[in-house]
């Protein structure tokens, strides 16, 4: 199954309101349109939004402490939340109040008292719009041959995940995968069979990158890359070994290969908690050096990079 055929996860709707009665009422109105989460303060809502990355946020304007405008401002400035749409919910129904909400960057405005039909229609419309925008993004970010993400999308997401993991001091993993002796495969079977081989390998990669935040991309030619958030070096090494076995188990005949009579892959791994002195480029370079170590050691294996990133690439 390629990335294009993956089932879409259910929509996530986050309600941020300091009134439990309003939360219960809104939840009942929208629960059939997606997975509903809630927070009773602006700070708690921001934390939950960063963890869950909801498609839609129903945000109360009048809250104690951090009000809705302050919460919305932080949402708009946070790269982790740039794709989350905000609908303001407020008892202020004057034209001036509505204009203020829209000028703040909200996609819509729901006045109180709440009308179930109005709430459901506006939520439904904006979820449809979010889905359409996501579909357009998928087309722009997809590799045409394999259905995986393309390198441009990977580079953007890797930079964002690197910054997020550095900010929260979480371990991040990156995996470089190279199909062994692929030129010999093309020389023997032709490019059509070569393309089919790459698509099968892509499906194996997609099978191993299904958790939220994980992604597999075609990096170029017969080289692929996988991004694994919040993964320790030990777990990443287990993943690399599993991926080697998974690709070998495809059983794609390759008599000209040096490691085995079937298609195999060499894999370079790097996992670490990013520090201020690190860079995404340094992590990728470390994984690349580990990949070449795997090839020099005989191919059809994974190698984990050391704890120290290449000094020439840091900064």
What is shown here, in short?
This protein has 315 residues and is of the alpha/beta class. The protein has helices at residues 20-30, 42-52, 68-77, 95-103, 116-140, 151-168, 182-189, 191-207, 233-248, 280-296, and strands at 12-16, 35-39, 56-60, 85-90, 108-111, 172-179, 215-220, 223-229, 265-272, 302-304.
Q: Which features would summarize this protein structure in a list?
A:
315 residues; Rossmann fold; alpha/beta; 5-stranded parallel β-sheet; elongated; 2 domains; Diguanylate_Cyclase; EC 2.7.7.65; Alpha-Beta Plaits; GGDEF_dom
Describe the secondary-structure layout.
Elements: E1 12-16, H1 20-30, E2 35-39, H2 42-52, E3 56-60, H3 68-77, E4 85-90, H4 95-103, E5 108-111, H5 116-140, H6 151-168, E6 172-179, H7 182-189, H8 191-207, E7 215-220, E8 223-229, H9 233-248, E9 265-272, H10 280-296, E10 302-304
Parallel strand pairs: 1-2, 1-3, 3-4, 4-5, 9-10
Antiparallel strand pairs: 6-8, 6-9, 7-8
Helix pairs in contact: 2-3, 7-8
Order of strands, main sheet, comes to 2-1-3-4-5
CATH architecture of the largest domain: 2-Layer Sandwich
Quick one: biggest sheet?
A: 5 strands, parallel
Number of domains: 2
- The dominant shape is elongated
Low-confidence stretches: 1-7, 311-315
H/E topology pattern? EHEHEHEHEHHEHHEEHEHE
Mean pLDDT figure: 90
**Radius of gyration, in angstroms, nearest whole number:** 23 Å
User: What structural class is derived from the secondary structure elements?
Assistant: alpha/beta
Number of helices: 10
Strand content: 15-25%
Classified in CATH, the superfamily of the largest domain is: Reverse transcriptase/Diguanylate cyclase domain
Find the CATH topology of the largest domain.
Alpha-Beta Plaits
CATH C-level category of the largest domain: Alpha Beta
Number of strands: 10
How far apart the termini lie comes to 38 Å
Q: Tell me the helix content.
A: 40-55%
């Amino acid at each position: 199954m390629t990335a294009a055929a993956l089932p879409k996860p259910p929509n996530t709707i986050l309600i941020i309101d300091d009134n439990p009665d309003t939360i219960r009422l809104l939840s009942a109105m929208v629960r059939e349109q997606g997975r509903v989460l809630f927070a009773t303060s602006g700070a708690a809502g921001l934390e939950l939004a960063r963890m869950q990355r909801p498609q839609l946020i129903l945000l109360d304007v009048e809250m104690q402490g951090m009000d809705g405008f302050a919460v919305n401002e932080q949402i708009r400035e946070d790269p982790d939340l740039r794709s989350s749409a905000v609908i303001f919910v407020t008892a202020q129904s004057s034209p001036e109040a509505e204009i203020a909400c829209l000028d703040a960057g909200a996609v819509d405005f729901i006045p109180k008292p709440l009308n179930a039909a109005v709430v459901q229609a506006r939520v439904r419309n904006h979820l449809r719009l979010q889905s359409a925008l996501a579909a357009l993004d998928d087309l722009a970010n997809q590799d045409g041959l394999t259905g995986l993400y393309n390198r441009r999308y990977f580079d953007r997401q890797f930079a964002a995940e690197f910054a997020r993991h550095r900010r929260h001091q979480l371990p991040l993993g990156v995996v470089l995968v190279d199909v062994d002796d692929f030129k010999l495969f093309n020389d023997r079977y032709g490019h059509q069979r070569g393309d089919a081989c790459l698509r099968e390998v892509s499906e194996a990669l997609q099978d191993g990158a299904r958790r939220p935040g994980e992604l597999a991309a075609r990096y170029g030619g017969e080289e692929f890359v996988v991004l694994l958030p919040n993964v320790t070096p030990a777990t990443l090494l287990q993943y690399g070994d599993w991926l080697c076995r998974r690709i070998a188990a495809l059983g794609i005949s390759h008599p000209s290969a040096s490691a085995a009579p079937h298609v195999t892959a060499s894999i370079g791994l790097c996992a670490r908690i990013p520090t201020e002195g690190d860079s995404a480029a340094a992590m990728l370079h470390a994984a690349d050096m580990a990949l070449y170590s795997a090839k020099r050691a005989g191919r059809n294996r994974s190698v984990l990079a050391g704890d120290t990133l290449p000094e020439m690439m840091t900064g």
